Amino acid sequence: MKTLMSTAAAALFLSALPALAEILVEDPYIRTSTPNAKTGAAFMVLTNAGPEADRLIGVSAEIAPRVELHTHTSDAMGVMKMHEIEGGIALPAGHSHALARGGDHVMFMGLEAPLEQGGEVTVTLIFEKAGEIEVSVPVDHERKPDHGAKKHDH
């Protein structure tokens, strides 16, 4: 009886866990404009390998007091502006979304320490259905703009 209760409790617990394996994070890296910068950005490719749509709704990291999902848009005069993405980033089932330079990205504001070449930062991605996924993101100031670039759905 005790074994049956333990098995049932374990099954209930496991069924309540988010489907973490359905979101894949590929080629993550962080860059800053200068070693003493107060802002930085992270880039990566997110793939929803699951059967249901999901949405990246937030992000956090201990390296900055403010971490947001950002994008670039052009105003009527053709001037590019960066701003927070309202409502998160949709990830349809079976599709990928690139967080890339000049487009959507993770923005760190108020960096509390320099980001040193070769270092790593733990970033927590928060999904509507998959929940929180921690990613270890390398700091790579030398990466070329198209390094690791692949064709992805956007």
How does this model look, in words?
The protein is mainly beta and 154 residues long. The chain has a single domain (19-138), classed as PCu(A)C copper chaperone (Immunoglobulin-like, Sandwich). Helix content is 10%, strand content 45%. The chain has one helix spanning 2-16, and strands at residues 23-32, 39-48, 54-61, 66-74, 80-84, 89-91, 96-99, 105-109, 120-127, 131-138. A hairpin with a 6-residue loop joins strand 1 (23-32) and strand 2 (39-48). The relative contact order is 0.26. Residues 2-20 and 147-154 have low confidence and may be disordered.
Protein traits:
about 150 residues; mainly beta; 6-stranded antiparallel beta sheet; 4-stranded antiparallel beta sheet; 1 helix; about 45% strand; disordered N terminus
Number of helices: 1
Contiguous runs where pLDDT drops below 50 for at least 5 residues: 2-20, 147-154
User: Helix-strand pattern, N to C?
Assistant: HEEEEEEEEEE
The average pLDDT is 83
End-to-end gap: 52 Å
Identify the overall geometry: globular
Largest sheet: 6 strands, antiparallel
| CA radius of gyration | 18 Å
CATH class label: Mainly Beta
Count of extended strands = 10
Share of residues in strands: over 45%
Helix-residue proportion: under 10%
The CATH topology turns out to be Immunoglobulin-like
CATH superfamily: PCu(A)C copper chaperone
Helix-strand makeup class:
mainly beta
